[in-house]
Amino acid sequence: MGISASDERLVDVAYIVEPNPPKNVTLEIQQPEDGKPYLWIKWVPPTLADTASGWLLLQYEVRLKHEKAVEWEIYFAGQQTNFKVLSFYPGYKYLVHVRCKPDHGLWSKWSEEHSIEIPSDLNMNDETTWIFVAILSAVICLVMVWAVAFKGYRMMTCILPPVPGPKIKGFDTRLLETGKTEEFLTAFGCQGFPPTSDCEDLLVEFLEVNDSEDQQLMPSFSKKYPGQGVKFRHPDRDNDSGHGSCDSPSLLSEKCGGPWANPRTFHIPKVIEKLENLEANITCTWDPLNISTEGKIFNFHTNGSRSSTWPLPQPSQHKPRSPYHSTAEVCKLPMGPKAALATVLDKSVKDALKFSKSIEIGGEEKAVKKMEVESFPAKTEQDTAWLLPQEKTPFIPEKTLDYVEIHKVNKDGALSLTPKQKNSIDQTEKPQASEISKEYVKVVRVTDNNILVLVPDPRAQNKEAPRSLQQNQAEKDTSCFTATPSNCRLHLGGSDYLDPASLTHSFHGQFE
Amino acid sequence: GSLLLLLLMSNLLLCKNVASQPMCPSGSSCRVSLRDLFERAIILSHYIHSLSSELSQEFDAQYSQGPEFFTQAMSMCHTASLSTPAGKEQAHQIHQKDFVILVIHLLRSWTEPLSHLIIEANHLPKAPDTLIAKAMEIQEQNQRLLEGVKKISKLVDPEIIDNGDYSVWLGLPSLQSNDLESRLFAYHNEFRCLRRDTHKVDNYLKFLKCQIAYDGSC
Prior knowledge:
A: 3-stranded antiparallel beta sheet, 14% strand, B: mainly alpha, zinc (chain B), prolactin receptor binding (chain B)
């Protein structure tokens, strides 16, 4: 015997109610005067649904599309029995359906289809809005045009800063323009032009290098100078000449000790740039500045017309030149012009101080000041004379010219520098004879721009000189303290004063 | 003698008028607040019922061991003794304040069972967190709705008498039985009854709103 009754099914009436679809669906196009036209859909609940008493609560849903559309747009209408459609395309025929469901029940079927033809000439746009948008965009365009027109230049300079040119600090172009080469050269510390035979001797001596290749370079080096030229960079450039690390004026001034501070302090906008260039050239080595720089200086500002004679304030110093490579000389070139300029420029100390502060790149104002201060007294000495503004004497009094050479590098990066003595190398006595208080410069730190911040190191004075002198010969370790040798090289290459190739060669020779 | 009679007659008339008039006549300010109270109550009751439906369906989905597994679990709800209108016509015949008292009775009857359900549900094997969370939410909203309907009752009839009656719940032992199947049946039944009673409350309140706050036609 089977079972004639099915299994029990649990049904709760409240959840299985499916009402009839809404009735009397009407469609209208309403066009209020102060608004957009809309499609107004109205309906009534199904017959048996008693929503008035509240016993049954119905919620409605509307869907519509125009004849050629594929998908329906479905809108939930809540408990209201009308619905406004605001977005539609004029000129189309629209189809509308409505359905309902109890609050906890099932959806009814869709009502009958009702359609409406929307007139084509319906004005859907809101003119006021468009006028407002047009005015706003016009105003914005005007503002932009004005901004570009009036501030375009500034913006362009902001976006594309002009390419800076090389500058030589302390270099007075006016002197050059007026043709007063004598003053110009004296500013650089040259004793006279053309250089004397002593200079030539010194130059030759100076060109001696330990490495064979250096030797080869030297002659070409000197030769190149007159030929090359001196494309002297016009100082009328911006201050930010894109020099490398070796090029910072601050670096130069501090490296060379006190004297260097002074040229920078001179507030000569145009000259400064030139000086900076020169300084950059010097970065690396500390070899006898006077000789190399002066010689090169001549080459610089002579526009290639001068020979490569080297004015040598202290010829005797160059005997033991072997340790001094050409690179050192090259590096020292910039110093000469600067020194010369410094003397030429007759500025007050205050100006100098101000300027040093303003130009100080490394931010070592203290050091600069210190150097300045020290340089002042030093002017009487042989060292830093040429950097002092008050120094009326030319840069190249034999005694005052002082070249600093790097003879030792401490492990903490301190440069032990000795001024180049007029004495020959084999002199072991202290350079006191020349009343030169040796000035040693200590590298305090290396700044971001690869600038060596130097501070005079008084404790090393007069004590290490003899040692350093002796060691100078032995050591070839006149290293460039800029970030890399390549920096110097790059810098030099850009200056046109020196032959980059020769410089690099000498550098390489040095660092081997 | 005739004067006394006149006074009596007038008193009777007055009393009759007073008695037949709802305490919140149309046009008075209390009518507006009554509508607001009803709207809020309906929002809560609708929400509570939605949660109860989900709770019941989740439980069945989680613990059902076959189609119609829980059919045999059907048993009387503890609120079955409460006489509730079967349809709209019967609903019209109930006095409004009685209707409100009925709603309060239903709401109060679920206060204790809900708290026990939440505690015991933690001991269900693999009880989903959403299950217990929903039960807790229902409990909280139920309390709020109870407070709201009490306020409505005061507005409907200031002298309404709330005895504090409620249906007593005796289903705790079933929830704690050692037999898992019995326990599951007990839970299913409780959730089913909760779903039905919350639907009744929701339905009655929506009806009463139209009757009391909108004069019978929403």
